[in-house]
Design a protein that fits this description.
It contains eight helices and 32 strands. It is mainly beta.
């Protein structure tokens, strides 16, 4: 059986099992995949999307690169709905208005299964891109949803299980922009002053073709390329006027984390995060951006002389990779296998002032109204839902389980309309020795207490040199939750190491989010509403290699 056929067999078997386990959902049953428009759904926007292979000139010289690409055709709706990025392998930027009803006809012409996930949009299960809906070559899937999000920047990409990482790497991704009435009341940069900044890393081999390394150790750490692309181009340079701009930065890399900052040390100002505009602008010395995260940057070039250049870098940081990997990088081995090491400094993009203008928009002091959630809004303040991150050898897990399309744990069943507190933490293996049976019993009765006991025993074992030292597998993990977005309640940093100092000032946790970076030793508590839609909604590591290896679970909202 070929690798492709094996993947198809696994997916089809998982879908069949899911149908048997969730009979009320019967959504992915053979013959029930949505292939036609719903007559009663009156769409304001209709788009035809196609996934296909293409030849794109990514590098300045030599042959074109074969990629997988989303192409789109606007059937109905405002002309500005589709915004093409010239000569890019990325899909078009989608411009939506809050309240619009959208219908997308997705056609797959690839020789492998695929489906699109609207990362960050609050949509029904059937339109969320769950891998159970993956369609084969020549098939069609129809999405229908209302844009419920507030103004902000989101992300669409392939989400077919065991194929997500490679399909995104080869090009199946794009930016989504949503606007609303609150944003339109503000005087923010628009038109030519509102630009995408999609950051990705890639590796190229002979004849300019993409190389995607499949060695297990690199899959366990996450793929890192040696070339940095912005909006699909190498050595990106933006010609700007002496004015303020809004750059919508998206980390579209598989596993690379960026620490964005100006080369000359000038602070960065953010006006939005994953879930839209912030209550007010925030200025930081640098901004951390994990895979799947977005940040809207206010970049003001007013007062800059014509001809001046500013370089945005990814600044150096540490503590996100296993210690052995970082030691190898420190010995000059970071370029092994054509990899640019995680945490080293490099240029992301250059901004050149080419024209002087007399006026520039001023940064607003206040942006949009914001509802801050607190523990008083949740119904499980004393029993948060756990998301335990662990890295067993060759098996990245969540809550000590691998992804199964046909299973949810008891605490993964959530009542529709509730608001939950969720605790994300590193759940390392318990050391060998006494207490194992007792801990297992406690875990069965109370999952949160059991996980805490295992973690405490593991920390004690490591301190005394006993048990498995999982510290060698410690990594930072960007955890992404599908469905409605969440707010960060707090970060618990009492167990983090000294490396944390190199990243701690770059987290912007004051807005709505759907992806959060959890550093080794760190715990992050979030508050997430589960409103509007029933069904299965995934949560997973957005290190895409980890996701494909099974570091993904799902909530059943019922």
């Amino acid at each position: 059986m070929t690798l492709l056929n094996r993947r198809r067999f696994i997916q089809q078997s998982a879908v069949s099992a899911a149908i048997a386990s969730f009979p009320s959902l019967l959504l992915a049953k053979k013959g029930s995949i949505k292939t036609a428009a719903t007559p009663g759904f009156k769409a304001d926007v209709e788009i035809e999307f196609t996934a296909h292979t293409a030849q794109i000139a990514i590098l300045a010289a030599g042959p074109a690169t074969q990629v997988q690409k989303y192409s789109a055709r606007l059937i109905k709706g405002p002309q500005q709905t589709l915004q093409q990025i010239a000569d890019s392998f990325l899909g078009p930027v989608l411009n939506f208005q809050q309240g619009q009803k959208v219908r997308v006809f997705f056609k797959n012409t690839l020789n492998q299964p695929s489906i699109i996930h609207w990362h960050g949009l609050h949509v029904p299960q059937r339109s969320d891109g769950h891998p159970m809906y993956s369609i084969e070559h020549g098939e069609q899937f129809v999405y229908e949803f209302e844009v419920m999000n507030r103004a902000g920047s989101s992300f669409y990409h392939s989400h077919s299980h065991n194929l997500t990482a490679e399909q995104v790497y080869r090009g199946l991704a794009g930016l989504i922009i949503v606007t609303d009435s609150d944003e339109q009341k503000l005087d923010l940069p628009s038109g030519e002053f509102d630009m995408p900044l999609v950051i990705q890393d890639r590796s190229f081999g002979d004849n300019n073709q993409l190389q995607y390394v499949r060695m297990m150790h690199q899959r366990m750490e996450g793929f890192l390329g040696d070339s940095i692309l912005v909006n699909g181009k190498l050595n990106a340079e933006f010609n700007v006027k002496s004015s303020a701009y809004r750059f919508r930065a998206l980390n579209g890399s598989n596993s690379r984390i960026y620490k964005l900052g100006w080369e000359d040390g000038t602070p960065l100002t953010a006006i939005g995060t994953d879930g839209g505009l912030l209550p007010k602008p925030e200025t930081r010395p640098y901004i951390m951006l994990a895979p799947g995260e977005r940040v809207d940057l206010w970049l003001d070039f007013s007062g800059r002389a014509v001809g001046s250049k500013l370089v945005m870098n990814s600044l150096p940081f540490a503590g996100t990779q296993p210690k052995m990997t970082e030691r190898m990088n420190g010995k000059g081995m970071g370029m092994m296998h054509k990899r640019l090491a995680q945490g080293v400094e490099f240029a992301v993009a250059t901004f050149k002032v080419t024209e002087k203008v007399s006026d520039s928009i001023k940064l607003p002091e206040v942006l949009v109204p914001f509802q801050r959630l607190s523990q008083t809004d949740v119904d499980n303040a004393d029993k948060p839902i756990p998301i335990g991150i662990s890295m067993k050898p060759m098996r990245p897990l969540l809550n000590r389980k691998s992804f199964a399309m046909d299973k949810v744990l008891e605490f993964e069943r959530v009542a529709l309309g509730t608001i939950k507190k969720i605790r994300i933490f590193h759940d390392h293996e318990m050391p060998a020795g006494g207490g194992m049976k007792h801990t297992a019993k406690v875990e069965a009765e109370n999952p949160m207490r059991g996980m805490r006991m295992k973690r405490s025993m593991d920390e004690a074992g490591q301190e005394h040199g006993k048990g498995r030292k999982m510290g060698m597998m410690d990594m930072a993990h960007p955890i992404h939750l599908h469905g409605q977005q969440f707010q960060v309640l707090r970060r618990v940093t009492s167990m983090v190491k000294s490396d944390y100092a190199s990243v701690k000032h770059g987290f912007i946790d004051s807005g709505w989010k759907d992806t959060v970076l959890v550093m080794p030793g760190e715990e992050v508590e979030i508050i997430k509403p589960f409103q509007d839609y029933k069904g299965l909604f995934l949560y997973h590591c957005h290190n895409l290699e980890h996701e494909d290896l099974g570091m993904m679970r799902q909530f059943l909202v019922e």
